[in-house]
Design a protein that fits this description.
By secondary structure, this protein is α/β, with parallel strands linked by helices. The protein has a single domain, classed as Rossmann fold. α3 links the parallel β3 and β4. It is globular and about 30 Å long.
C-alpha cells in the first residue's frame, strides 16, 4: 500500500509508520497543490491512501466515488508530540481502510 502524507502533517510522522510505504507531498514535489489536483496526482501515481489533518477535505471532494481513501487525523495540534499518541490508531486505520472510505482517527476513536 502506497500512502501519501499531506503537507498539513509533520514529515517526521513517516518514521512512525514503518511497514508502510509512505511518501510526503513535499517529497513528491506537490507542495501547495490544491486538494482536487492533489488527489488526482496521487491516484495517477499509485497512492491508495492520503493521510491528512484537513478536516474539510472529505466535504470538498467526492471520495466515495474514487479509488482513493482518506485517513483524517484529529489531534490537539499537528506537532509530532501531539500525533505520537495516535500512531497505533493510525497504523490500525491504514490496515483496515477500504478504497473510497474516509476514516477518522482521534483520541476517542477505537
Amino acid at each position: 500500500m502506497l500512502v501519501l502524507l499531506d503537507e498539513s502533517l509533520p514529515r517526521h510522522l513517516v518514521r512512525e509508520l514503518d511497514g508502510f510505504e509512505v511518501k510526503t507531498v513535499t517529497q513528491m514535489g506537490w507542495a501547495g497543490t490544491k486538494n482536487g489536483a492533489l488527489l488526482k496526482l496521487a491516484r495517477q501515481s499509485g497512492f491508495s491512501v492520503l493521510v491528512t489533518a484537513d478536516q474539510n477535505l472529505e466535504y470538498q471532494q467526492n471520495i466515495p466515488n474514487s479509488d482513493m481513501s482518506i485517513l483524517v487525523i484529529k489531534a490537539f495540534s499537528t506537532r509530532i508530540e501531539d500525533l505520537l499518541p495516535l500512531v497505533s490508531k493510525i497504523r490500525r486505520g491504514l490496515m483496515r481502510i477500504k478504497p473510497g472510505q474516509v476514516l477518522r482517527v482521534n483520541q476517542q476513536s477505537a
